[in-house]
Amino acid sequence: MLKAKTDAFIDANFQREIEFLAELVKVPSDNPPGDCAPIGNRARALLEELGFSVEAHVVPAGVVDAVGMKSVTNLIVRRKFGEGPTVALNAHGDVVPPGMGWSKDPYGAKIVDTEHGPAMYGRGVAVSKSDFATYTFALLALMDAEKNGAKIGGTVELHFTFDEEVGGDIGPHWLLEQKLSKPDYAIAAGFSYAVVTAHNGCLHLEVTVLGKQAHAAMPSTGHDALEAANGILSALYASREALTKQKSKVKGIESPTLNIGLIAGGINTNVVPDRVTFRLDRRMIPEENPAQVESDLRVLIESAAKKFPGIRADMRRILLALPLTEEKGFEKIATAIQKHAKDELKVDVPSNGVPLYTDARHYSSHGIPAVLFGAGPRSILEANAHNADENLRLSDLKAATRIIALAVAELLGAQ
Q1: How far apart are CA 390 and CA 411, in angstroms?
Q2: Cα separation of 266 and 198, whole Å?
Q3: Which has the closest alpha carbon to 401: 185, 192, 137?
Q4: 204, 250, 331, 395: which has the highest count of C-beta atoms within 10 A?
Q5: What does the pLDDT read at residue 306?
């Protein structure tokens, strides 16, 4: 049986898989600042040590600069088994900076015995360097099964990219736009206890409120940008109540949200401020039209600014991440994963949406059915993803590798 063959290979090589993951965690790949060529080079070397032929696609410097990064080298591994569809497996190797509060070295890849069994600690170990290992060793297991008589069709591609934390435009999107790949199905990094079939979109706007400086002893001779910014922010915050009344039909996703995350401005305490800049984050449920959302926000901000004489509000889009939508054919991927996940984990694995945004949306926007599934626990909170002491249970890593191998084999029509 194919399952017996892939399980045996994964069991026999699991220590190698753990070591593969540890080597990736030990390479800092914080984004920002986004100097991700080193992690790409290390991943390429590790893949070549495993016998893979690796395509290294260096993103041009000007394109990298435009998204605020320093270097990106995307990787593709292609393995053709026979005639049939192509399945892309995508994970990202850039990570958010570690921040404070760690009890262990964020780049130490230390393994600790926990109440749930051994777990590896480190930045990116769950999101999503873990799935470099999951997908690599699932593919190796399929190659070994073929060598031992399994009949597998189609092609598996590993897409390892390095810009998800700033939107994925020069990772999966760039690979697809450059026509370096055209898969029939895509599976992107996720966690083991749910198949994600949809997620929110996200709009980041930078708003610069411009006035006229003046001496604080004569404030009427200036135009107070901070006072105007306060009025604009009040209008934005007041708009949030209406957002709570919009409900998504996608399980796991509730309502749109709006958050102001950054603000800066002013010259000195004794000067009427002539400039205030802030950035907002607007999460969009799958049912919303991103263009309409942005247009409505711009109208709201301009209307609020006009209430203050001498004030102008300039707006600049920083990010527009489209929602992940359920493209025709996604059910086939989700059903295959759910079936094998239930066999492996002994629990029902639901399909649902999440209020985040991920690289999977780039496949969906190109008409490629995509879902999220990979190594990890039931939630981001449980893994401390994007938090101190991020960790991954090694049992979940092994389970996800087994599940992915069998689900991909099913998509490829394996017998």
Answers
A1: 32
A2: 41
A3: 137
A4: 250
A5: 98
